Amino acid sequence: MVFALGNLARAQSTELGILGGVSLYSGDLSEDEFGLYFENLKPAFGIFGRFNLSNTLAIRLGVSHGQVQEESDLRGSDEYMRNFRSNITEFALTAEINLFRIGRTTNFQAIPFIFGGGAVFNFRPETLFDGNWIEMQPLGTEGQGLPGYEQPYQLTQIAIPVGLGLKLDMGNWAMSFEFGGRKLFTDHLDDISNASVSYQDVYEGNGELAAMISNPIAGNDGEPNPTYNRGGPFDDWYYIGGVTLSFDIGGGYGGRGSGRNIGCPTF
Question: What are the structural domains, with CATH classification, of the chain?
Answer without folding.
Answer: 3-250 (2.40.160.20)
